[in-house]
Inverse folding.
């Protein structure tokens, strides 16, 4: 008998909900979009209530199209961006817009924390040094710049934790939100309350930490009325979106690596032991006894979207199909045009919120298609930078998988294979994180019994082999890419100081 599970993904630009069955079928999916809010350079915010509204919309869409199966849903899993910060008052209402994980505003706060906190000890406990992804500097920014707002703070949650709270009325944070917060001991698996108190943060603001697959609550009557789901359905703690994507791409063994073409770019490598790097992040895999070394580029697909939308739409326009065709006829490395993709600063592996985007090598002979191709190449150069960093730790990716928006582009995937010099298996119809967290929820209630069953959902894929001649060219242009940041770092800092 088929059993049914619901997965919900709180993404940067939309909420996605998927209905899956224990037979390995993705039965249906629904999407509802929302906006990223960037009021000033480096800012990235969203409205948490939009996530909840879109959750209701997508779930009701699935119910309308699949009333019988949705009426038999046995468990709900929620995944989302991490570590986005949702600050709530005592009544459980947001006190301001969320501050997203790719927000780069807390430069002064990072400097303050770096000076006050023993960074070597912090690295030993958390697997990382103070950076813009951590929760503490972004919350300090709010306290210093919006004291009246901060005074109302009672609870801190992540993106998916907030939706789980709306579904269950339970305050909880999942293990990987805690791990990426910079306030959590990854080996002891406990909050670092001493550091919280050193900065006059109340430990009670931060809820109990739960493993991904644990059931934390059940659909309340109020949530049932809002969404159309039956009350009493169990809800698991969920997962960071990039970790759920890793599972849903079938990455469960050491040597497997995922490149995720999202609005931000994720690179995740599976290990069998805890491994950390000062240039990368650490996560617990949701597969038992597995861990993830990972990186996150602040701008990946969002860079391409910016070029296609804000630039081309306003200055002449061009269809994606036409650009794709035209750019594919150009030589590798775009006739000498190289772009640095640091349009929102950069997280891993350089951890520099003051880094800036750049187009280098422009000439009057370059066209819109050259710039488009150079944008695609820039993202893959960023992926390669991460793989080089992983290999410096002694790990060597054996299998590379690609998911999310860019995996649907044959052109972009071929660039990936050529730049990386490795075979890339892409899943063009892959539903991403929502499938991963749905599978996890199914494991929690026994609808799935073996992690290998994720491969039931992975029958549609394309394989891209590197072209040795293109790879040779990219090796040379990649070296220039790496040098450009080092040569312009001081200028980026000067620009940031000029406009502070």
């Amino acid at each position: 008998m088929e059993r049914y599970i619901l997965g919900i993904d709180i993404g940067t630009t939309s909420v996605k909900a998927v209905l899956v069955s224990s037979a390995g079928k993705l039965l249906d999916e629904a999407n509802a979009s929302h906006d990223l809010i960037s009021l000033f350079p480096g800012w990235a915010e969203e409205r948490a209530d939009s996530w909840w509204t879109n959750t209701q919309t997508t779930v009701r869409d699935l119910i309308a199209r699949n009333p019988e199966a949705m009426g038999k849903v046995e468990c709900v899993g929620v995944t989302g961006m991490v570590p986005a910060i949702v600050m709530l008052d005592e009544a459980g209402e947001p006190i301001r817009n969320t501050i997203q994980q790719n927000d780069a505003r807390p430069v002064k706060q990072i400097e303050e924390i770096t000076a006050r906190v023993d960074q070597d000890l912090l690295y030993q406990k958390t697997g990382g040094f103070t950076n813009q992804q951590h929760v503490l500097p972004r919350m300090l920014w709010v306290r210093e710049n919006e004291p009246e707002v901060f005074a109302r703070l009672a609870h801190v949650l992540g993106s998916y934790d907030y939706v789980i709270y709306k579904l269950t009325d339970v305050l909880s944070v999942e293990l990987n939100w805690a791990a990426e917060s910079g306030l959590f001991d990854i080996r002891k698996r406990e909050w670092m309350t001493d550091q919280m108190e050193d900065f006059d943060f109340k430990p009670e603001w931060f809820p109990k930490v739960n493993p991904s697959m644990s059931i934390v609550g059940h659909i309340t009557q109020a949530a049932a009325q809002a969404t159309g789901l039956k009350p009493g359905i169990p809800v698991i703690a969920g997962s960071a979106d990039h970790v759920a994507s890793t599972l849903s791409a079938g990455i469960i063994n050491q040597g497997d690596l995922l490149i995720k073409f999202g609005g931000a770019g994720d690179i995740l490598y599976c290990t069998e032991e805890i491994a950390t790097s000062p240039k990368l992040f650490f996560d617990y895999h949701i597969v038992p006894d597995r861990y993830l070394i990972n990186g996150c580029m602040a701008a990946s697909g969002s860079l391409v979207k910016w070029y296609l939308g804000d630039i081309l739409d306003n200055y002449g326009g061009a269809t994606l199909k036409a650009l794709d065709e035209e750019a594919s006829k150009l030589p590798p490395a775009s006739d000498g045009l190289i772009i640095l993709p640091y349009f929102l600063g950069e997280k891993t592996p350089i951890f520099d919120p003051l880094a800036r985007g750049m187009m280098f090598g422009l000439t009057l002979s370059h066209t819109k298609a050259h710039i488009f191709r150079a944008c695609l190449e820039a993202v893959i150069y960023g992926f390669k930078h991460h793989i080089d960093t992983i290999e410096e730790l002694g790990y060597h990716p054996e299998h590379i998988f690609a998911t999310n928006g860019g995996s649907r582009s044959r052109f972009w995937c071929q660039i990936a294979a050529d730049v990386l010099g490795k075979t890339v298996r892409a899943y063009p119809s892959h539903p991403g994180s929502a499938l991963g967290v749905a599978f996890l929820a199914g494991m929690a209630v026994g609808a799935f019994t073996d992690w290998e069953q994720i491969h039931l959902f992975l029958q549609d894929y394309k394989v891209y082999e590197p072209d040795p001649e293109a790879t040779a060219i990219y090796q040379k242009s990649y070296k220039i890419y790496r040098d450009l940041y080092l040569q312009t770092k001081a200028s980026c800092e000067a620009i940031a100081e000029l406009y502070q």
Q: What stands out?
A: The chain has a mean pLDDT of 94.
